[in-house]
Structure formats: structure tokens, C-alpha cells
Amino acid sequence: MSSTSTPVLTAKGLTLGYGADPVVRDLDLTVAEGEFTVIVGPNGCGKSTLLKALGRVNRPEAGTVLLHGRDIRSQRPKAVARQLALLPQSPLAPEGITVRALAARGRFPHHTLLRQWSPRDETAIARALELTGLGDLADVQVGSLSGGQRQRAWVAMVLAQDSATLLLDEPTTYLDIAHQYDLLELFADLHRRGRTVVAVLHDLAQAARFATRLVMMDRGAVVADGTPGEVVTAERVAAVFGLACDVVPDPRTGTPLVIPHERALG
To answer: Which residues pair with 1 in a beta bridge?
Structure first.
């Protein structure tokens, strides 16, 4: 983060876990306003656990998460939700809910006793359905959709929330390759329009292509943090992922592209 960037989220000395053995230990991280930060790393390294702590879902065993300089846990849930939206991994929709009704749940943080449903809510929902290509499926039950369509319905809910910061935990799950890139291009466009985006991704090529900043984790710690070109090296991919490879420039974007070496069998 440059010295002139404004911190949106700051993790200080963060320790997270689901038992006696922490998944993340004493981690520091700052997310600056206007960045498209992508977190990568092998399975079990703590990526999703960290993202949920940044979104006020996981309570730290030690350390603090600050949202715009204030302890996120001292802020009311609705106040947090108006500032950031979290797309969890593999969420479950209530039985019988329609795509439109699911998207409408993204508007709840904006409602108070004095401000209930309004035309602004309708506009936000319609825009979210348009951006995710679900306008024609608005009245269809989420449970009857394909896996990819369900994922886009959850993205519509996050977009309808209209928060300045988006936290996305593996948002391309269940999507075919074309829809993966469609969705990532959508998030990149939202970033260009001023949103701060933090995403957990598995695909290193996608992460390097869309991120303005890449954070690589291993065994609960940040092992590299910088531009994709700084972070994705053959030596680091081999050390963190156990994959011998070459890293070459993507012929379309110039961003790092990982070319695995052949593996000896037998």
C-alpha cells in the first residue's frame, strides 16, 4: 500500500482458528481503498478464514480488525454491512426463495425504522440482476437453478447491497470458464468505478490477471505481498504450492502465467 492510500481494512496481530491449533497466527495486513486485492495460497493455508475475519464473521482469538480505523467488532452489524459486503463460500439459500427475493436481502442493511422499502431499493436490485445476467430468472426459485446460476444469484445479493468494499470468497465456484471470466471482468469493472475488492481465488493466472495487489499465504502467514509480477515467481510457486513451473508473461495482458513442468509418473 502506498503512503497516500487510505486504509479500509487493517488486521493487526490477527490469530484465528477453530480449536487449539490456530489457522492464522499473528498476521498483519492492510487493504487500501481502491485496490483489487487477491489472496492466494494452497488449501488450508487460512485464506478463507482470514477473509471471514475481515468481514466480521470470524472472531479473532487475538488481534484486531479495523474498518476505517475503528474496531470492526465495536460497530453494529448493519453499519458494517453498509460499508462492506461479504460473499461467503458455498452459501445456502432458504428453501423456496426466488432470485429477486435473495437479491433483495442485500438491501436490509439500508433499512431502519424510519427508512423502509423505497424506489432506490428496487433500482439497486434491478441493476444487480442486470449485471449478473439474471433478469429473466428473477422469479425463479434459487433451488431450481444450476450451480453457476445460484452462484450468480448470491453475487446479485452482494451487488444489491451497494457497499463500497466487496469481500469475495472463491466467487467463481461452480462457474464454467467463460462465466468465470465474465464475473471477474464484472468485479474488475466495479473496481475501476471505485469499489475496493478483496477476493480469494485458486487460479493463479486469474489472480495475476485481475489483481492490482496479490497476497500469497502459506501455513497461516503472508509470505509475499505486492504486484502480481513481484509475487508470482517460479521459485515461490514451487515453495508454496509444491509445483515446479515456468512463469512467463501472458501474451494478452503481460501478467504472470504459470506453466507447470511435466510430472514424472511411476
So the answer is: none
CA 164 vs CA 73, 82, 98: distances in Å: 19, 8, 25
Q: Are 31 and 192 in contact (CB under 8 A)?
A: no
CA distance 4 to 187: 24
What gap in Å lies between CA 94 and CA 105, rounded to an integer?
11
Report the distance separating Cα 253 and Cα 147, nearest Å. 30
Domains in the chain, please, with CATH?
7-92+164-260 (3.40.50.300)
pLDDT of 173 higher than 90: no
Residue whose grid cell is 488481534: 63
Kindly indicate the confidence band of residue 17, based on its pLDDT and cuts at 50, 70 and 90.
confident
Which set of grid coordinates corresponds to residue 45? 493455508
Q: How far apart are CA 77 and CA 214, in angstroms?
A: 28
Residues facing 167 on adjacent strands? 86, 198
Q: Note the residue count of the chain.
A: 266
Q: pLDDT digits over 47-91, tens only?
A: 999 999 999 999 999 999 999 999 999 999 999 999 999 999 878
